[in-house]
């Protein structure tokens, strides 16, 4: 029996059969052959959105760039290409994605279908760059869906519920450099100046450490054309991003999981050990950070105006709880978009992500945070842990029933359903 696990190790499935197609035609044949099918990319979702005990379709062999127009910036790719590979191949063409998250192992189809995002008050999630996509339906029909298609706004973040995405056309931009400025600040100071920090930078995010007033801020801004690269030195990258942020942090988390009472002191130390630094580099080299310490994550999208109140409620919970949380909280921002099932649909958004080390049970912590977030009309990231069902999503997504209507048209027999989709979308 084949066993499949996601990156975090919290989701396991035992598919009866695994396919690894290299083309859309092979996907069509696989879909027609099996009654239940789920596609999987890199397995980087913390939810069981791709899990199945039926037929599992791995897309990692579909990793080619099919066409690139460097004049218009339109790039057609197979859906299984990883963001890691795509970023480097786009750079070689003089192109880039306009925004990225902070890790890059995800497939293009997985990242767009779950609403993966970065940060930037005037920018959007990765799916906003989708100009067209190719979708294999439950009947094995191949649909080409672009901006003129009535399913376009449903399909860009399709949750794997509408069909198998096999090709994606991305609207890229000319390659650009970012100047990164990273420095510690008091959380109270960040919240006092939050609007200025968010609106005054192309990309702003911060992490804060529970049980402390410590935060680490990241400001990334485009530089004028002709500015030379000034990347981190190799020794600084090795020290900060590999040794301290991964090797040492893994050991610290192991200690924290065994001796929780030490966590407030550990967090105070973690919040001060990484000093200020500045550098200028290719956009994807600035956006992406190595993340090798395994964790579990829950992230919610709230109206941006709720950021300070929600964080204040979180701080009050940390102060009164007998639980100690060793992982920092990540806070990011994006502009409102027009994609029906995007967490940023029609509202400027603050994303608040909470984490726990993979050896620590996150259940009660994530439940407490979920209560705070849904009180502010929170929408959970489709690929990150939550316990909410279709009743909640119908309240917070104005086009929820329209999306279900598209699903009924494309997959009336629920060939692409699984337990997670039944939870979040209903039967």
Summarize the structure.
The protein is α+β, with helices and mostly antiparallel strands and 427 residues long. The chain has helices at residues 24-33, 83-92, 108-113, 152-155, 187-192, 194-199, 234-258, 263-273, 283-287, 307-320, 363-374, 390-396, 400-410, 419-425; strands spanning 4-5, 12-13, 17-19, 37-40, 55-58, 65-68, 74-78, 95-96, 130-136, 142-146, 164-171, 173-174, 177-186, 203-208, 214-222, 277-282, 295-303, 329-334, 349-357, 379-380.
Q: Could you explain the architecture of this structure?
A:
Keywords: Oxidoreductase. Residues 11-175 form the FAD-binding PCMH-type domain. It is built from 14 helices and 20 strands. By secondary structure, it is an alpha+beta fold. The mean pLDDT is 94.
Largest sheet: 8 strands, antiparallel
Strand order of the largest sheet: 16-13-15-14-18-19-17-20
Number of strands: 20
Report the end-to-end length measured between terminal Cα atoms.
28 Å
Mean pLDDT: 94
Class based on secondary structure composition and strand pairing: alpha+beta
Percentage of residues assigned to helices:
25-40%
What is the 3D shape?
globular
Beta-strand fraction estimate: 15-25%
What is the count of DSSP helices, taking H or I runs of 4+ residues? Answer: 14
Radius of gyration: 21 Å
Low-confidence stretches: none
């Amino acid at each position: 029996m084949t066993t499949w696990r996601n990156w975090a190790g919290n989701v396991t499935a035992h598919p009866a059969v695994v396919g690894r197609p290299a083309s859309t035609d092979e996907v069509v044949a696989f879909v027609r052959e099996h009654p239940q099918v789920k596609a999987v990319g890199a397995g980087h979702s913390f939810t069981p959105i791709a899990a199945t005990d039926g037929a599992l379709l791995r897309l990692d062999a579909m990793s080619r760039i099919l066409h690139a127009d460097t004049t218009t910036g339109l790039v057609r790719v197979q859906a299984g290409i990883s963001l890691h590979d795509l970023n480097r191949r786009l750079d070689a063409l003089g192109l880039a994605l306009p925004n990225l998250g902070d890790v890059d192992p995800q497939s293009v189809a997985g990242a767009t279908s779950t609403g993966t995002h970065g940060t930037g008050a005037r920018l959007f999630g990765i799916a906003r760059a989708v100009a067209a996509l190719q979708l294999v339906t439950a009947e094995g029909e191949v649909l080409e869906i672009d901006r003129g298609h009535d399913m376009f706004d449903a399909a860009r973040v399709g949750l794997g519920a509408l069909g198998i995405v096999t090709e994606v056309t991305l609207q890229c931009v000319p390659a650009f450099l970012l100047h990164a400025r990273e420095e510690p600040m008091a959380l109270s100071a960040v919240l006092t100046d939050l609007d200025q920090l968010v609106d005054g930078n192309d990309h702003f995010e911060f992490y804060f450490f529970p049980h402390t007033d410590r935060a680490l801020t990241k400001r990334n801004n485009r530089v004028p054309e002709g500015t030379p690269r000034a990347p981190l030195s190799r020794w600084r990258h090795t020290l900060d991003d590999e040794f301290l942020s991964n090797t040492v942090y893994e050991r610290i988390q192991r200690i924290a999981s065994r001796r929780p009472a030490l966590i407030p002191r550990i967090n105070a130390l973690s919040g001060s050990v990484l000093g200020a630094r500045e550098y200028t580099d290719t956009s994807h080299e600035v956006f992406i950070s190595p993340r090798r310490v395994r964790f579990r994550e829950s992230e919610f999208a709230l109206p941006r105006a709720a950021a300070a109140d929600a964080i204040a409620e979180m701080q009050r919970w940390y102060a009164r709880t007998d639980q100690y949380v060793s992982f920092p909280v990540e806070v990011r921002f994006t502009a409102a978009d027009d994609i029906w099932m995007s967490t940023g649909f029609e509202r400027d958004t603050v994303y608040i992500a909470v984490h726990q080390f993979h050896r620590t049970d996150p259940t009660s912590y994530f439940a407490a945070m979920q209560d705070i977030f849904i009180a502010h009309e929170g929408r959970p990231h489709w690929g990150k842990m939550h316990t909410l069902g279709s009743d909640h999503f119908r309240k917070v997504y104005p086009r929820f029933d329209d999306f279900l209507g598209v699903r009924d048209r494309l997959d009336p027999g629920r060939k692409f359903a699984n337990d997670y989709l039944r939870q979040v979308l209903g039967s």
